[in-house]
UniProtKB/TrEMBL annotation:
Superkingdom per UniProt: Eukaryota
Name of the protein described by the UniProt record: Glycosyl hydrolase family 10 protein
Domain GH10: 1-269
Record bears the keyword Cytoplasm: no
GO biological process entries: polysaccharide catabolic process
Length: 328
């Protein structure tokens, strides 16, 4: 309960670390197990959160079930279609994004088994199952740094190839597992990716545990500020889930859910700087009240003739002043 309270005070969106992945939900052929996911989704629904679907497939052979490895191509295709149907029918409209084929620049399990159009076929199958699903690619060492297999140009080419193949990729996932960040490099990569005119999400932000807590906090703040300030970045997810054994790389709290320096960074940004806070005032002679606000959901209460009228509205991306009309 302590973790739930800590989480809900700060966040409105979540992503499951491993629980939704294929090797967790179907460890043996035909034996589907969504028990843990169901419990997590109860928490999501109860608290009106949104959740990313991570992931449908993962190209890394290390995380492919043994029973898939020796299948023929037709057998594997049938198993994949079963996976798609099982999870997307069970959780239809529950996940606001889906990572389709995780880390496809670094790994190629499905390409080796099914050919170079494996990811294209995944997109087509998922779009047939749910035409309204929001489908992403997700990759590391794009915005953090580049390596021999992944860089921003290769990533952009992959999006263009999929579009040419007739599928809609709805967004760009950047895992964002950082060591020491280079803000200028980040900005240049984000600017290049923005030419695709797709929403960009940093999907798994953390900082290497090779650094001490104070240094992690400094680097985390640099990453978050650089991403938040970019007009094409629509969302940021943290990869900081705490288990009894600790965290993958970055913890935000100690085992008693007291903030570490990284958690203090989150509180400073989310609860103090990047929030509109409470605004109070009187309308002018035209019945208007003006304010500047951050993107998000707003609740408004109007006192008029001793009657209180409550309403809600949202502020989204856009350069123009937004006009909200509330009838009293």
């Amino acid at each position: 309960m302590l973790f739930q309270e800590w989480f809900l005070k700060r966040f409105k969106a979540t992503v499951f670390e491993n629980e939704l992945k294929w090797y967790k939900t179907e460890p043996l052929p035909g034996q589907f197990n969504y028990t843990v996911v169901d419990q997590m989704m109860k928490f999501v629904r109860k608290n009106k959160l949104i959740a990313r679907g991570h992931n449908m497939f993962w190209d890394d052979p290390v995380y492919v079930q043994d029973w898939l490895e020796n299948m023929t191509a037709p057998q594997l295709q049938r198993a994949m279609k079963s996976r798609i149907k099982s999870v997307m029918s069970k959780y239809r409209n529950e996940f606001f994004h889906w990572d389709v084929n995780n880390e496809l620049l670094h790994f190629d399990f499905y390409e080796k088994k099914l050919g170079p159009k494996a990811t294209l076929d995944m997109f087509k199958s998922m779009q047939r199952e749910d035409p309204l699903a929001t489908l992403f690619l997700n990759e590391y060492n794009i915005v953090e740094r580049c390596d021999s297999k992944a860089n921003v140009d290769r990533y952009i080419d992959t999006f263009k190839e999929l579009k040419k193949g007739g599928v809609k990729v709805a967004g760009i996932g950047l895992e964002s597992h950082f060591s020491a960040p280079n803000p200028a490099f980040m900005r240049a990569v984000l600017d290049k990716l923005a030419t695709l005119k797709l929403p960009i999400w940093l999907t798994e932000v953390d900082v290497s545990s090779m650094y001490g807590q104070e240094e992690q906090a400094v680097f985390l703040e640099q990453i978050l500020r650089e991403a938040f300030s970019h007009p094409s970045v629509n969302g940021i997810m943290l990869w900081t889930a705490r288990s009894p054994g600790g965290c993958y790389q970055t913890c935000l709290t100690d085992e008693k859910f007291q903030n570490l320096p990284t958690g203090d960074v989150i509180d400073q940004l989310l609860l103090n700087e990047w929030t509109t806070g409470t605004k109070r005032g009187k309308t002018n002679e035209f019945g208007s009240y003006n304010f500047r606000g951050f993107l998000g959901e707003f609740k408004v209460s109007i006192l008029y003739n001793r009657t209180i009228v409550n309403s809600t509205f949202s502020l989204g991306h856009g350069v123009d002043t937004k006009h909200i009309t509330i009838h009293v």
